[in-house]
Amino acid sequence: MADKRDYYEVLGLGKNASEADIKKAFRKLAKENHPDLHPNDKECEERFKEINEAYEVLSDSDKRSKYDQFGFAGVDPNYGAASGDGSGFGAGFGDFDLGDIFGSFFSGFGGSGSARNRNAPVRGDNIRIGLTISFEEAAFGCDKNVSVSRIETCDECGGNGCAKGTTPEVCPTCHGTGTVMTQKRTMFGVMQTSSACSKCGGTGKIIHQPCSKCHGAGAVKKQKNISVNIPAGIDHNQTISLRGQGNAGLNGGPTGDLLITISIRPHEYFQREGSSILYEMPVSVTQAILGAELEVPTLDGKVKYSIPEGTQSGTVFRLKGKGVPFLRGNGRGDQFVTVNVTIPKNLTSEQREIVRQLDESLNGSSPSKPHRFKRKK
Question: Is residue 126 included in any domain, yes or no?
């Protein structure tokens, strides 16, 4: 042990270094030389031990004072003896948490620099539900009532979990932090870790007289009826968010939201594409041949529309402004009507004769040349 380097030299500091300088130098060197980053480097492992030993002495004002006066003999009564077992390495880190050093390295692998403050405000969870409405309700909007089961702050105790007139005791084990620190000796020194306090269950407080309503939980589950405004033009699978209507937060944290996903029941006649409405209009052969004034159903009721003579099956005409209102903005989409010519069945012999005569009178005006389809390459 006679070849040990000066502790200030190990940390790259002068003897007038402040506590902050010592801590900063230790953080930097410990990160650079941590054995987990150099698993097969024995020299790096020895440097890491040396850095920790130097920090152990210089971070302790009493040990540092003795070291400044008497050197290694002031802090290690066995200095110079041939013990060589390295048992003095890392005997303690004071209140320094190695998690603070290595958190930035291992955060991507599930590690963390220090335990989260278990008494910090936490936002409540969102609640998700589904709501089914009719085609017309989606188009024009409506008001609905929904029933949700949610967690609310107990109104009896105000959320502290205690009976009226009493207050929780600060946990004497963790002193209200909800966590306790434990130290474990390893080949690299004493590693310090945090875990939930078993005395208070990680709450940081002990309730001696629980609230009779929430039994110390500070929150209760309630069934709540909530009014929901469904905006005109909402579409299938879109979600409405009601802020602050979800579960209550913890430790004074904000309440979550209620998220309502809309399902629309199919319509008997109409189909919807965005803000457009599609409708197939059945017409007779004579109406298609001669033309006719039709009564077309829409979301606003029936409207009249005249089709010209000779209208072909599959012809599409538009009713402007008869579609679904735009969800975000003024105006409405259009309704598109597809003509579907209905061919009569089970004609009588007299009716067939009339059709035959009609065909002869048309004298070949029906299309005689078939369409040629181009073969796909």
Answer: yes
What does the pLDDT look like over 43-97, one tens digit per residue? 888 888 899 888 989 998 888 888 887 787 777 755 544 434 433 333 344 444 4
Q: Which residue from 143, 123, 132, 125 is spatially nearest to 260, judged by alpha carbons?
A: 132
Residue at 367 is within a domain: no
Same domain, 230 and 156: yes
Among 132, 134, 130, which residue's Cα sits nearest to residue 268?
A: 134
Residues 135, 200 within the same domain:
no
Q: How far apart are CA 254 and CA 144, in angstroms?
A: 25
CA distance 15 to 7: 10
- pLDDT band for 102, please (50, 70, 90 cuts): very low
> No. of H helices and E strands in the chain?
9, 15
Contact at 8 Å (CB) between 208 and 166? Answer: yes
How many alpha carbons fall within 13 Å on the CB side of residue 240?
25
Q: How far from 285 is each of 153, 278, 316, 340, CA to CA, in Å?
A: 69, 22, 17, 10
- Which CATH number does the domain housing residue 150 bear? 2.60.260.20
Task: Measure CA of the first residue to CA of the last residue in the chain; give whole Å.
Answer: 87
Helix (H, G, I), strand (E, B) or coil at 16: coil
* Of 105, 86, 103, 14, nearest in space to 46 by CA: 86
Give the total number of structural domains in the chain: 4
Are 281 and 329 within one domain? yes
pTM, two decimals, is 0.60
Mean pLDDT of 17-22: 90
Distance, CA of 245 to CA of 259 (rounded, Å): 9
Q: How far is CA 218 from the centre of its chain?
A: 25
Domain, as residue range, for 71: 7-109
In tens, the pLDDT along 248-283 reads 998 888 999 999 999 999 999 999 999 999 999 999
